[in-house]
Amino acid sequence: MSEITQIFTCSPLAPVLHRVKISRGRIPSSVLNHPNKSLSDYMVRIITLSSGKGGTGKTLVTANLGVALAQLGKKTLVLDADVTMANLGLVFGIEERKTNLHEVLSGGGAMKNLVYNGPAGLKIVPCGMSLDGIRRAKLERLKNVVTKLASGVDIMLIDSASGLDHDAITALSVAQEVILVVTPNFTAVAEATKIKVVAERLSVKPVGVVINRATGERTDLSRNEIVAVLDLPVLGIIPEDAEVRRAAALGEPVVTRSPKSPATKAFKELASKILKTH
Ligand SMILES: Nc1ncnc2c1ncn2[C@@H]1O[C@H](COP(=O)(O)OP(=O)(O)O)[C@@H](O)[C@H]1O
Ligand SMILES: [Mg+2]
Fold first, then answer.
1. Which atom from ligand 1 is nearest to the alpha carbon of 181?
2. What is the count of structural domains for the chain?
3. Ligand 1 pocket, residue 90 CB under 6 Å
């Protein structure tokens, strides 16, 4: 039985998952047949954070994991590729900066002004938030931008749009690895299976799952249930922590704002774990 068939027939969520259909027609051929897809092409690890469902915490995990990796001494760059609903810049309080990914994807901005400095030497590439920027951005330029930014970087984390629309698939296709960010509930986990299937078809390696916003309540799916459905290792469990929201509202990652918070501890453990999964 193929792995994909197993996901749909053997998992505890099979009654729902069997309705999930991945149609080749939804993936643009330019993405499916992207050239030079080989880990050996890069010195850098390029990891996209994806989810089927919105609001699982991809942006918050990208930002805080990025800082935690930088604190461990890795040359880390975080890039906001959620071209339509960008908000990584907000988490770092740099949303007003003039040069952003929109500008570069539209051909108007210079690459040299695109990268901003964050905590612990983290490099940050924000995306713009204007409707005009969304309209002008050309997604097919993303691969080229990512390749240029990869030089001199150890780990690049790409914050993706949710789901499987063109921008989300493009963000996935430019990476070598994908981390699925789920909240511990049925819908988020079921939808993550679709991302996993599409990633494998794009030759992007699903390295594991981050369970975010874990409450410890009985209504949460357990770690084992999530592993049984996704058949991937759990890289980290980030608790629901009001400090995460508070810090984000103030334009600062929780890892620097509240170094002793439960979420910060979990982000640091996640960073260490990721460095061991290679
Ligand atoms: N561990 C957490 N604890 C508390 N709130 C969180 C946590 N992770 C994310 N959030 C909140 O959940 C919401 C969605 O997070 P976000 O990172 O924007 O999700 P996504 O990028 O997947 O759409 C935000 O309001 C964020 O502050
Ligand atoms: Mg987001």
1. 22
2. 1
3. no
